[in-house]
Write a structure and sequence with these properties.
Order of helices and strands: HHEHEHEHHEHHHHHHEHHHHHHHHHH
Oligomer: single chain
Number of helices: 22
Strand content: 5-15%
Largest sheet: 5 strands, parallel
Shape: globular
CATH class of one domain: Alpha Beta
Structural class: alpha/beta
CATH topology of one domain: Rossmann fold
CATH architecture of one domain: 3-Layer(aba) Sandwich
Length: 430
């Protein structure tokens, strides 16, 4: 109570969705959760076959130790991180209850997990994320993660409580996609290019605009983006790695993982203990020793699944559908054209004939429709605590941009205003 708000930290938080470095909402409070990680880049000459074997031994040792004597709760998707976990769990003989969740009125997202669970012989729950589920949980969400990361999008908020009763520990695949892929840039990209790549990755659509508008409304000195760039430059330059992909992976792991991913892991850990094999320091050390050419394109995970669980490798890879881990190279070739045409017609039929466009993003369940809009407006426009920090004109402006304009672009600013509004109303610090 009575603390002075750190407006630069809040502006950065608005722009990215999470707090940078050791920031908090207040000038006198610094987050002390950052710890030194052994991030470096010391690649060893090797082969994909050797790397895959080493990964199998390390990963399975971690999974075995984290699940010993417990029933692991595993969320299965059509991606690689949870599938890699599924292979390891089956190979170490762990006891597992699995589940998948998809949006109401959306794609059949749970079919991939259902197939993998069947192959493994595990029990499985097929869950739907319903429209407007957020509003009954939004205050408890703020209490759980304290508003330090945007909390209107994480789907686990809708299912973690129920799933926690079916096992002992949530085994989570978070951060595998960052560790086991490149950053989509050249290894020798210069520092200025790396800075641009980091900004592109961490800035959310519309976030910089809202942060800049707030900066001006607070009569702060200078241009927000210039000050933001200076800060990112300092953080990035402090990482003693020359390889551009390795440096940005280290940046994301040191800052994004700790302040975004880890913050929202609280939506699991609030209900049951959690385990994160990809977070293990030994995994970090392993990644630092792998040449970038073997990390690009998810090669290690793909090879691990194909070698040790070819039946699971034959299940479609969601982001490369309808192809699997043996033929995904056909994605976006002429072979893929008939599937893309069929999916386009399916979307058009759903939207124009049935009258229910396919839900693809979480905010569509939270913000669209009369009931959702009523709740959204209540938090944004009937909230004196929010107005003390954010001028009502800015709130109205971004609400109108979302409702009348490009919803995809302006959904993030709206989510951040909502998160801030809930946080301020709950804490009443002003």
């Amino acid at each position: 109570m009575g603390e002075t708000f750190d407006k630069f930290a809040i502006a950065c938080w608005v722009a990215t969705g999470f707090m940078l470095d050791n920031d908090s909402f207040y000038e006198s409070v610094k987050w002390d959760g950052l710890k030194g990680q052994p991030w470096n880049y010391d690649p060893k000459e090797t082969t994909l076959e050797k790397i895959t074997a080493d990964f199998a031994q390390l990963f399975e040792d971690i999974v075995r130790s984290q699940t010993a004597g417990k029933t692991a709760l595993l969320a299965l998707s059509g991606g690689l991180d949870s599938r890699t976990l599924a292979v390891a769990l089956r190979r170490v003989g762990a006891k597992v209850h699995s589940y998948s969740y998809g949006f109401e009125d959306s794609f059949d997202e749970t079919s991939y997990g259902k197939q993998i669970a069947k192959l493994a012989g595990w029990s499985f729950d097929d869950l739907k994320i319903r429209r407007g589920y957020l509003w009954d949980k939004i205050e408890s969400a703020c209490e759980i993660n304290l508003g330090y990361a945007e909390f209107t999008h994480p789907r686990q908020l809708a299912v973690a409580d129920a799933m926690s009763k079916k096992g002992d520990i949530f085994l989570l695949g978070h951060w595998g996609d960052v560790l086991f892929d490149d950053m989509g840039i050249a290894d020798d990209l210069d520092f200025e290019g790396q800075l641009k790549a980091v900004k592109k990755k961490i800035l959310k659509k519309g976030g910089l605009e809202l942060a800049s508008d707030l900066w001006k409304s607070w009569n702060m000195e200078g241009e927000f983006e210039e000050i933001f760039d200076k800060r990112i430059r300092t953080m990035l330059a402090a990482i003693p790695i020359e390889n551009a992909n390795a440096r940005i992976r280290a940046f994301k792991s040191m800052y994004w993982a700790t302040r975004w991913t880890s913050t929202n892991l609280s939506f699991f850990s609030h209900y049951a203990p959690i385990a994160l094999p990809y977070y293990d320091d030994r995994m970090c050390q392993f990644i630092c020793s792998i040449p970038e050419k073997f990390l690009a394109g998810r090669q290690i995970q793909i090879e691990y699944i194909r070698k040790y669980a070819p039946d699971m490798a034959k299940v479609s890879w969601q982001s490369k559908a309808p192809y699997n881990l043996f033929n995904h190279h056909k994605y976006l070739t002429n072979h893929h054209l008939p599937y893309r045409i069929a999916m386009k017609f399916k979307h058009l039929y759903q939207e124009r004939v049935i009258g229910k466009p396919l839900v693809q993003r979480n905010w569509e369940l939270q913000f669209l429709g009369k009931k959702n809009d009523k709740e959204l407006r209540r938090w944004l426009f009937e909230n004196p605590e929010l107005n003390k920090l954010v001028p009502s004109q800015i709130i109205e402006n971004y609400y109108q941009r979302f409702t009348q304009g490009n919803k995809v672009h302006w959904s993030h600013p709206l989510s951040m205003l909502l998160t801030l509004g809930v946080m301020l109303k709950k804490t009443k610090t002003l």
